[in-house]
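ok trying this again, last paste got cut off
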Amino acid sequence: MNDKYLEKALDNISTEINDIFVMLKQKIEELENDLVELDEQHEQSLKVAFEKGYEEGVKYTDGLIKDEKFPF
């Protein structure tokens, strides 16, 4: 086998492997950014749900208190 042919084949394989690692690194960074965004959206969703639940609870409680006839 020709040494130059083998050397060129190894260089090509090395280049392809490096390209694959670059693509994998980019994809991992993209997924990490997506995860951060999803975490932020989840936190915001929880805040909105809590606030809505709290407001509904206050309305319900206020309604119960107004319906009761307290002497004071």
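PB: full thing came through this time. The radius of gyration is 31 Å.
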